[in-house]
Amino acid sequence: MSARRRPWLLWVPLLGFILLATIFVIGLRKPDDPSITSKMIGETIPAFALPAATAGVQGLASADLTTGTPHLVNIFASWCVPCAGEAPQLEALARNGVPIVGIAIRDRPDDVAGFLTRYGNPYARIGSDTTSKVQIAIGSSGVPETFVVDGKGVIRLQKIGPIMPEDMADVQAALVAAR
Amino acid sequence: MARFLDWQAGGKGRPWILKRVQDDRLRGPVVIAAAALTLALAPPVLANSAMPTAPLAYTQLPDPAQEAKAKALMETLRCLVCQGQSIADSNADLAADMRSLVRQRIQSGETPEQVRAWLVKRYGSWVSYKPPLAADTLILWIAPLLLFALGGVLAVGSLKRRRR
Description:
The structure holds two protein chains of two kinds. Helix content of chain A is 35%, strand content 18%. Chain A is α/β, with parallel strands linked by helices. Chain A folds into two domains: 1-32; 49-177, Glutaredoxin (3-Layer(aba) Sandwich). In chain A, strand 4, helix 5 and strand 5 (125-129) form a beta-alpha-beta unit. Chain B has three domains: 2-41, no CATH class; 64-127, Cytochrome C biogenesis protein (Helicase, Ruva Protein, domain 3, Orthogonal Bundle), CATH 1.10.8.640; 133-164. Helix content of chain B is 57%, strand content 0%. Chain B has seven helices and no strands. The termini of chain B are far apart. The chains are: A alpha/beta, B mainly alpha.
């Protein structure tokens, strides 16, 4: 009846379908980005104190990050393959005077030592986070991740995944901005 | 794993179990079983720690009431690695560490909503399966009401016509 009175109503379901189909097609074609960004950017790094990750290195506490100079905080692990891939970039940053501190996630002292022997040691300090508690506290969800922390201990940048040569400019710019 | 790869590459190390199986009909299943066993026993190749998990990852709290609260909360927290699973369901290392963290905080007297808020502050409301009522989730909350109202209007309209 209503179709006889208002014939345009017949087209409503089809239009609805086309609208939904368009939304789904656009959604499906979007590249999948599973990375979860930390919501702690702009916040002061939570207080923590981690023991040394292996013999011959110093442990890491949040107080070490409020010394007035910006730091790179590198979340890594010896069991993480991409972490080896970013080693040359970290090495280059350290050579150029960037203070880099490491947080080794769920790692054994011997394995950390082996990793440093194999891929070099750009770290001024390495804390051992065997239960991911500092990683979770700063909103990191994987390895490797790198945070730029300014001289007051405020988190300025989160880089998810390994620092590859093409990421160096961003990281360096964030370090300069964090001064 | 090395032995498995060697075998896959046709190396000389033919698995002992095949030397023992004389019946050809049994070889297929035995090969599959052996391969499955090798894979199951092989150490994970990528991105898995060899460390034992955090203390309370697989250990319940001594107080059943606290454990129940922690469990209920864990079922509504999203695993950050295997997205789509709750941390209660996931075997990922990070999920185990998050379970331990949840249990520790509940044990020290925090309420489940305080723990949830602590995690949401770090990972955003994405980490929680309980969406808050906010500007970007408004449609989620009001869409059922709107659809219900629309259904009501349509029903009233068609009933009126039928009566006439």
